[in-house]
Amino acid sequence: MAQYLSIKARHADALLFFRMGDFYELFFEDAIEAAKVLDITLTSRGEYDGKPIPMAGVPYHAAEGYLARLIKAGCRVAVCEQTETPAEAKKRGSKAIVNRDIVRIVTPGTLTEDALLPARQDQALAAIALGTGGTEAAIAVCDVSTGRFDVTALAADALADSLMAYPLSELLVSDGDLDKTAVANTVALSSAPVTFRPARSANHKAGENLLKETFNIAALEALGDFNRAELAAIGLLLDYVKLTQAGSEIRLDPPVRARSEGHLAIDPATRTSLEIDRSMRGDRNGSLLGTIDRTVTAPGARLLAARLARPSVDREEIEARLDAVSWFADDRDTVETVRSSLKAAPDLERARTRLRLGRGGPRDLVAIGRALVAAHEAASRLTALGTVLPSRISDATQALNLNKDASLAELSRDLETALSENPPTLARDGGFIAQGWDAALDEARGLRDDSRQIIAALQARYADDTGISALKIKFNNVLGYFVDVPARHGDALMKPPLSETFIHRQTLASNVRFSTQELSELAGKISRAEDEAKGRELAIFDQFCSRIDELNPSLSRSASAIAELDVAAASAEWAFEADAVRPALTDDTTFKATGLRHPVVEAALKKDGQGFTANDLNLSGDDTGTHLLLVTGPNMAGKSTYLRQGALAVILAQSGLFVPARSITLGLCDRIFSRVGASDDLARGRSTFMVEMVETAAILNQATERSFVIMDEVGRGTSTWDGLAIAWAAVEHLHSVNKSRALFATHYHELTKLVEDLPGAANASLRAKEWKDDLVFLHEVQSGPADKSYGVQVAKLAGLPKKAVRRAGQILKQLEAEPSAPESLPLFAAASFTPDTEDNAVPEEIVPPSEADKALQQIDPDSLTPREALDLIYRLKALASD
Ligand SMILES: Nc1ncnc2c1ncn2[C@@H]1O[C@H](COP(=O)(O)OP(=O)(O)OP(=O)(O)O)[C@@H](O)[C@H]1O
């Protein structure tokens, strides 16, 4: 207990997994909480302060699954291991307790186990810090499972936007920054758990020292010229990584400096509403990423996700990515061969990091070996083509060609020969090194196996000597090797002369067990041979781990090259499937697309066997003079889809991907804004309308001439006239002040007149046709405003009760007759309404009488014979189903 309490005192905020033999035990409050979250039995053991100590435990070998559940439930877990064997402890004194210590603190942002991590997504542990003036800020982000480490310097007010571009698992904030607005806003927006750290760890000096120590350099310049905010964020991050690794070395790749201006800025609301990597329901399915992802490796999937989350504004970078996709897009056969080779490549990136952190196992070694071979094969197929490769593909093939890196080739060969086919997860289980790899290991194993044969021979001899054919030599953990005979033969072995050889150990209901001198000696030999074999295997495992550590820079390059090739080939594959084209990029403010489509809606419609109507979109400002389009049209006609497909085209193009269109020319955008859909944010005390206005304000305050803006139905959350006034002002502002390329969808038809005064604005509408009594959506965009909104017909389509539809039609008529007198609207004078009778309730254009209605009206029930009545029923039925 004293040992437990002293360790627990150091980690009060984490559940303590206290290793005792084959279990991790939890005590006191920890046990109560873990039992509740994990649904495991809560027991008690011993007493403390006169009360029983609550206890709960999980088996050591199944700990990963339990850890996963605890982390998901928001807990942190400190793992405390036995740091010596009981035999070692005994040497210090017969009553000595084995030493124990924390080896790791498991938190949501510092996981490395495959079982705990989504394979196709990065895990971002981020730290934010502000510069002294409070206007400068920095983000340091790392993924401990892959070793990636990025640092970005940015303006404090851009913190939240930039941070949300990462798949955050945990956010670190200094206690000292909490009262700063930019930090408080970011914390409020964070969807990931926030961990507060003492201010001293977010200090630029501490950051500098930790950087030097981690990367073993004397001067910082070797890594880059970091400012104070960056160093503070780095300090906060590295200090925490160190804490969670319980003092063992930090294994991260050197930090890569990014500029926030290097990315297309996407604010959190836009990110959510455009469903870039998550749909509104929170699934990957139905998001842009889920729709276009054709990658076959985990590092590839993570790179694609990162590119879509942070599209670039660097034209050279984007063109290089597009060159790679284009090259593959010209040759589908090559795409197939490369993808089929890469498919066999396991997650080298995470495997190498686990091994470097001392948490890896034999399977990680196998993963590295297989990935190197598969990637080499993919690279060889590309070089064998003999054509000139674009720079990204050529760099990747160079990095993956094992003929160009002797040490990596040797490692790959050795891993292939040294490891057995199906190794265990843990190195300590042994049996993963193949026969023939190491002479000393083979000898120890030979000895062990020989002794086993000798035991078999001994069993035969004992059976012979005693005349007991049922005599067996068995093994268990308590007795070790023992002689086992059925109970009825027990007496014979306990009497002379046999009792001189057989020493009685245990009597069970149906068996009696004995040991012999010879057997004990043999058992000792076997166990020594086994220990030696295991020790030998562990030594070989360690040798491989150090080789991997030494080759880390090459392996890191290989992992990136696999990801690069995979993303290029997968993007070409998707382009084939989706009939997407390479965007032409410019430095001006062009946006000119023909036959543009919405990839996600199109894919969903395709599944149902329906087609998608492509539409053109030109916001270039030059030839037509239009950079702002007011989009009107009936509900359900496809306005939102048209708006979103414009924004998605920008994201795809600037991520270096093809765009589903016949052609597209795009002047690179600096930011993308969307104000679509309304949802409230009650947790932050904001009503639906308030959210809408906050987002609108952000756009009007920040959008530039280079931005791309979509706004859907701004103003609808309040009264008609207020809403119209706000929408009106927003369009004018966007047009004349922001001057962005923009699409503005609205149901306020009054707005369509605005184009007369705004030279850069034009009207466009989505067509719908009335056919018989129904509304048919054509999804085609035409220039000019829509004639009407057909809202009541759509309500009817949606299945509103007939009575309500009729009533709506009636109100609509009156409104249309007197649009300028809201105070006299029937809405505010419900009592004056005429009652809902058949005669006045059905506006003709909405529900004209059907043939069946007409037939019914002509009936005179009193004059019908039963036979005529029956005929009439059949006729009415036929009319109704017609
Ligand atoms: N170009 C298109 N081709 C085929 N189907 C389309 C197209 N655009 C939209 N649709 C279909 O129409 C549905 C409604 O589209 P959307 O939500 O864009 O309409 P809307 O005009 O914005 O409606 P509302 O005004 O009610 O918000 C979509 O879910 C999709 O199934």
UniProtKB/TrEMBL annotation:
ATP binds at residues 633-640. The keyword Nucleotide-binding applies. Gene3D superfamilies: 1.10.1420.10, 6.10.140.430, DNA repair protein MutS, domain I (3.40.1170.10), MutS, connector domain (3.30.420.110), P-loop containing nucleotide triphosphate hydrolases (3.40.50.300). SMART domains: MUTSac, MUTSd. One of its GO terms (biological process) is mismatch repair. InterPro entries: DNA_mismatch_repair_MutS, DNA_mismatch_repair_MutS-lik_N, DNA_mismatch_repair_MutS/MSH, DNA_mismatch_repair_MutS_C, DNA_mismatch_repair_MutS_clamp, DNA_mismatch_repair_MutS_core, DNA_mismatch_repair_MutS_N, DNA_mismatch_repair_MutS_sf. GO terms for cellular component: cytosol. It comes from the Bacteria. Residues 707-723 form the DNA mismatch repair proteins mutS family domain. One of its GO terms (molecular function) is damaged DNA binding. Keywords: ATP-binding, DNA damage, DNA repair, DNA-binding, Nucleotide-binding. This protein is involved in the repair of mismatches in DNA. It is possible that it carries out the mismatch recognition step. This protein has a weak ATPase activity. NCBIfam families: mutS1, PRK05399.1. Belongs to the DNA mismatch repair MutS family. This is DNA mismatch repair protein MutS. The gene is mutS.
